[in-house]
Amino acid sequence: QVRLVESGGGLVQPGGSLGLSCTASGFTFNNYVMNWYRQAPGKEREWVARINPSGYVPNYVDSVKGRFTISRDNGKNTLYLRMNSLKPEDTAVYYCNSRHGSREYWGKGTLVTVSS
Predict the structure, then answer these.
(1) Residues 90-101: b if buried by 16+ CB within 10 A, e if exposed
(2) Residues 36-56: pLDDT tens digits?
(3) Taking Cα atoms as reference points, which of 53, 39, 11, 48 lies closest to residue 109?
(4) What pLDDT sits at residue 5?
(5) Residues near 40 by beta carbon (within 8 Å), at least 6 away in sequence
(6) Across 89-114, average pLDDT
(7) Neighbouring C-beta atoms of residue 82, cutoff 10 Å
């Protein structure tokens, strides 16, 4: 049974930093691309970042380039998202995602609120 569990969200001031984690189980973690998505209030879910199975060649949506860093620890079956220079528009529920052929798996998300 595939399971993705996000953690690390919270309230942070503009310009601050926060780190998210996603612990995976039920599949061979180091075989799959992993993604972070987010959904802001009243908006559609958007893709944020992707990392390949080996941990190289990350990709980011333009709005977070230079501020967010995606990484993974295959030995711990864990995906990370380091978020720096946070802006109010980064406020969203952040989701971990893994796509296995035609099936897609999601965690329940963790809320990040950027506000003074």
Answers:
(1) bbbbbbbbbeee
(2) 999 999 999 999 999 999 988
(3) 39
(4) 98
(5) 89, 91, 92
(6) 96
(7) 14
